[in-house]
Design brief:
Strand order of the largest sheet: 2-1-11-10-12-13-14-15-16
Mean pLDDT: 90
Low-confidence stretches: none
Strand content: 25-35%
Radius of gyration: 23 Å
Helix content: 25-40%
Structural class: alpha/beta
Length: 513
């Protein structure tokens, strides 16, 4: 058995190699591959024998980063079940809607989210959940403790039905309307992404420090899974802390680090930046948004850091493009060239390939594409054309040297702190307020977050609402990172001859301020 049983194989090849360091535990938890495999086997037996989890069943987890995320993923992989990590930044009502769509049998949660779990236990949207498992301390509201869920045998647990086309995980993308879409990440996708990553990035002896949330493709699949396949060491943080990151890089002699530009900015502002020893790093990777050239120059001058930049998507890889360190300045703003087993084109509206420096939609093809969207056949059909090109919705161009640049987005999505924010979702919530007549949410440059939102609102005649009222309305219904930085109440919005709100006019107006 080799498909899905990642730890089973690695426990044969390097049982005593340090696999995971969980710095969120007190004391820190350091586990070898043999120990990680035994943990996953025990959990897999319990999931199968007690909960009744089988092939294709979803197992949800709502928790900040910790080894339990990986325990769950690897146990599910052994069973052919589907790891379903939930975004803990969402409002509990948003999460409840996702539970209704994905119908997991089990929900594992940490103490931070016990209040939300209490809501789920009384919500019809979570009716599929038969077992709640508490990671921390005593059970809550009839839930089990994680220790109770892991008392069974550590003997080998595998499922013969698992193949390369079996879905291993659901990773949620932001949706322009309605629920986030759940990309079906297969074992084949994981293998091809790992090969792409290893070809240009990883060594057998690398030590990787992960600061991305493990519900995110960046946390679970960019380096963490390739590291396991290659037999490296991964260090987990409960959540991003700049000073702790700098200390851990020095203490653990970290060789690979990845973050979004906001994180790199925050690291330079940490109290221990000046004395931080980053000499062990072979390179740093930046994604999510272009890395400012002055920031690259600061890291190079003060710490001797080599930066790679990349571009990924939940549905594809996620490692799609990479910009080599030697090109960080000369090709500033570029996402680089496609990874080895990724084909990329820029096409016009008739799906015809465009030449150098012509702007069109970025389309992708290759074996690291996902198996479509869970429980969403329409989105799956429309994402890929008849020639198997995945349409990203991003406007791009490439230069004469085949370096690609993202120019704009076909949709209005903007990126704040490395997270995709979709204005249509926020506008839908605003329109639920009785005083809102018209609204438009736009993204504008932000020195800290890259981009942040502004909600432009026209009130209905005869109604009253303050900016604070509308802000609270959004806070009560949306994840905090989606809530715009401010609300502007306006007499009117700019409208085109076709009756569409001219968001670009709004962006120019508020960017100029």
């Amino acid at each position: 058995m080799y498909i899905g049983d990642y730890l089973g194989r690695r426990a044969i090849y390097s049982p005593d190699k340090l696999a995971i360091v969980d710095t969120g535990k007190t004391p820190e938890l350091r586990l070898t591959y043999a120990e990680m495999n035994a943990r996953a086997n025990r959990l897999a037996h319990w999931l199968r024998d007690v909960v009744g989890v089988g092939y294709g069943d979803r197992v949800a987890i709502l928790a900040r980063d910790g080894v339990e995320h990986l325990d769950t993923f690897f146990a599910c992989a052994k069973l052919g079940a589907i790891h379903t990590a939930l975004n803990w930044r969402l409002h509990w009502r948003e999460t409840a809607a996702i539970l209704a769509d994905t119908t997991p049998k089990l929900l594992i949660f940490s103490a931070d989210f016990a209040t939300a779990v209490t809501e789920f236990q009384h919500a019809p949207e979570a009716a599929s959940v038969t077992h709640y498992v508490h990671l921390d301390g005593e059970p809550v509201g009839g839930s089990l403790s994680f220790k109770e869920a892991r008392l069974d045998s550590g003997e080998k647990a595998t499922t013969a039905a698992v193949t390369e086309d079996t879905t291993a995980a659901l990773i949620f993308t932001g949706g322009t309307t309605g629920l986030p879409k759940a990309a079906q990440v297969t074992h084949k996708m994981i293998a091809w992404n790992s090969l792409n990553t290893i070809i240009h990035d990883l060594h057998h002896d690398d030590i990787y420090l992960n600061v991305f949330p493990l519900f995110h493709t960046g946390g679970l699949f960019v380096y963490t899974l390739p590291q396991v396949i290659l037999g490296g060491t991964t260090i987990l943080l409960r959540q991003f802390d700049p000073a702790q990151v700098l200390d851990l890089i020095a203490r653990e002699r970290v060789t690979v680090f990845a973050g979004v530009p906001t994180m790199y900015q925050l690291l330079t502002q940490a109290a221990n930046w000046a004395e931080a020893d980053l000499a062990s790093l072979r390179f740093c990777t930046s994604g999510g948004a272009p890395l400012p050239v002055p920031l690259v120059q600061k890291y190079t001058a003060e710490k001797g850091i080599r930066f790679k930049q990349g571009f990924g998507m939940t549905e594809f890889g996620p490692g799609i493009f990479a910009l080599a360190a030697e090109d960080a300045i000369a090709k500033a703003g570029s996402i680089g060239r496609p990874n080895f087993y990724v084909d990329a084109r820029v096409v016009d509206e008739q799906n015809r390939p465009l030449g150098p420096n012509e702007v069109g939609e970025l389309v992708l093809r290759g074996p690291s594409y996902c198996a479509g969207y869970f429980n969403n056949d329409e989105a799956t059909r429309t994402a890929v054309d008849e020639d198997n090109w995945f349409h990203t919705g991003d406007l791009a161009r490439h230069d004469d040297d085949w370096y690609f640049f993202i120019v704009d987005r076909k949709k209005d999505m903007f990126i704040s702190g490395g997270e995709n924010v979709y204005p249509a979702e926020i506008e839908k919530v605003l329109y639920e307020h009785t005083a809102v007549h018209m609204c438009a949410v736009i993204g504008v440059p932000d020195p800290k977050w890259g981009e942040s939102g502004i909600a432009c609102v026209v009130l209905k005649p005869g109604t009253e609402a303050t900016a604070d009222d509308l802000m609270q309305h959004m806070v009560d219904r949306l994840a905090r990172y989606k809530v715009p930085r401010r609300v502007e109440i306006m007499k009117e919005l700019p409208i085109s001859g076709a009756g569409k709100i001219l968001k670009r006019d709004l962006q120019e107006r508020f960017t100029a301020r």
